[in-house]
Amino acid sequence: MATIVRYRDDKPASVKWPTRIVSPTHASRCCLTRMVALGGLQSETHAHVHYESNQKYTDTVRFQYMRCVTCGFTVKRIVAEEPDAFTFASLRKAFQQPMFSREPAGAYAGRHR
Predict the structure, then answer these.
(1) What domain range includes position 63?
(2) Fewest C-beta atoms under 10 Å: which of 34, 52, 71, 77?
(3) Residue of 72, 77, 91 lying closest to 28 (CA atoms)
């Protein structure tokens, strides 16, 4: 996932929204309570190929940059991930399968009867 944040300790924190943000490499105590949103929600679409069926699919990730007003530490906060139709279809198929079998299987099958 691409980002406009550059983590560096040799330069002061700065914001050149929306092209580049220079951030310290680690968070401080102030970051727990002083994070604010930079800009609005953004989204990225990623293309993938399913490893078993070789079907192509895409998913969309919605995110927002959050920055500490005190020290300048910045992170990319994932807000939502929207799976594609292929993922929904495979989830539907998985949930149609029974979660537990009535018959025990494996090496311990005979001990439970």
Answers:
(1) 5-98
(2) 52
(3) 72
